[in-house]
Specification:
By secondary structure, the chain is an alpha/beta fold. The protein has 2 domains: about 100 residues, 3-Layer(aba) Sandwich (Rossmann fold); about 220 residues, Rossmann fold. It contains 13 helices and 9 strands. The strands form 2 sheets. Strands 6-5-4-7-8-9 form a 6-stranded parallel beta sheet, sandwiched between helices. A 3-stranded parallel beta sheet has the order 1-2-3. The chain is globular, with a radius of gyration of 22 Å.
Length: about 350
């Protein structure tokens, strides 16, 4: 790759964010302001060292199974963590001295977001409505239809599709139909850039969901509604979603598979997404995939993943590449689940 890639530099001047999801990692380097990028084992573009060679940036690998030409390797272990971290910082400091001011182009475009919605934080907000029984307001609003159901959007970006489009269009369609969305990982970055993690984004929500967000936000002293999309952490924080779903199932005394909930990986690409999706299905959750997984060579595997698993574990995969049709399919599933619960 030639130095100073014209397309990337042009994108930065137009205000494309320099950091964020999986597909932003090269753009971060192209700002010219990254002294060191430390990578471990997941979601690493093999092109990083080539891009960094055009700048002063040092690429540092830390895992014995992940090394790349042009990168410096610093073995990182628990036993030597302090010394390893100091070595990495010193490498970054040395690189800083070689910054070229002529190559620094930091975009000024910014997006606001609200984060930090762990299970504890969500329950804390609900306690402001009902201190003795915090889940009751959520369950009551699901029961009367103000909230149709809940969907977790997770997973990656994928170079096979337009970046962020599936995440954003799917979620806008869901919240318009009063579906509460929680999100993690790269999906959260996409939705944050689109402005869907602010109180103002409640205007995108349907009237029932908007009323609930406003009531909880006001009761919690936030001076406005909660965002319609709640950021629950990184891509490896999906256990928080499971904790919340499990708490709802225990409260209602029903299995997770009977709840009006679903999961979606609108732009999956990483093997980690495969394991997370399989875990969600094993929990009994209807799980949407927005990119066709490479299993079409086996009709038996396709049938198992999209149909037979439901009878075994309660969940299954639903594959739909169009985000609007995917939203329709997810909403149909939530409504079917509500009918099973006589809601």
């Amino acid at each position: 790759m030639p130095c100073a890639p014209a397309a990337l530099a042009s994108s930065l001047r137009r205000g494309v964010p320099p950091a964020g999801s999986f597909l932003n990692q090269e753009l971060a380097i192209v700002t010219g302001a990254v002294d060191a990028m430390v990578v471990d084992v997941q979601c690493i573009m093999p092109s990083l060292a080539n891009v960094a060679a055009c700048y002063h940036t040092k690429i540092i690998t830390t895992m014995p199974i992940v090394k790349m030409p042009g990168a410096e390797h610093v073995p990182f272990t628990l036993a030597t963590a302090d010394a390893d971290a100091e070595r990495i910082v010193r490498i970054a400091l040395e690189a800083y001295r070689r910054r070229d001011p002529a190559k620094i182009a930091i975009p000024q475009a910014k997006s606001k977001m609200w984060g930090g919605f762990s299970v504890e934080a969500i329950l804390g907000a609900l306690r402001a409505v009902n201190a003795e029984d915090p889940l009751k307001p959520l369950v009551d609003n699901i029961a009367v239809g103000n909230i149709l159901g809940a969907v977790a959007t997770v997973g990656c970006n994928n170079t096979k599709v337009v970046q962020d489009r599936a995440h954003v269009e799917l979620v806008k369609a869901l919240i318009k139909e009063n579906v509460l969305v929680v999100t993690t990982g790269c999906s959260a970055h996409a939705l944050a850039k689109a402005g869907l993690m602010t109180p103002e984004a409640a205007n995108y929500a349907g009237p029932g969901l908007r009323a609930v967000l406003s009531a909880v936000g006001q009761a919690a002293g936030l001076g406005g509604p909660l965002p319609p999309v709640l950021h629950m952490g990184s891509c490896v924080d999906n256990s928080r979603v499971a904790d919340l779903v499990s708490a709802l199932a225990a409260y209602l005394k029903v299995p997770v598979k009977d709840l009006p909930v679903a999961a979606s990986a609108p732009e999956l690409q990483h093997e980690k997404a495969l394991s997370i999706g399989t875990w969600a299905v094993a929990l009994g959750i209807f799980t949407h995939l927005g990119v066709v997984p490479p299993v079409l060579g086996s009709a038996q595997v396709v049938k198992l993943l999209t149909a037979d698993l439901e009878g075994l574990v309660g969940g299954k995969f639903y594959v739909e590449t169009d985000p609007h049709r995917a939203a329709d399919g997810i909403i149909a599933h939530l409504r079917a689940q509500r009918r099973k619960l006589d809601l």
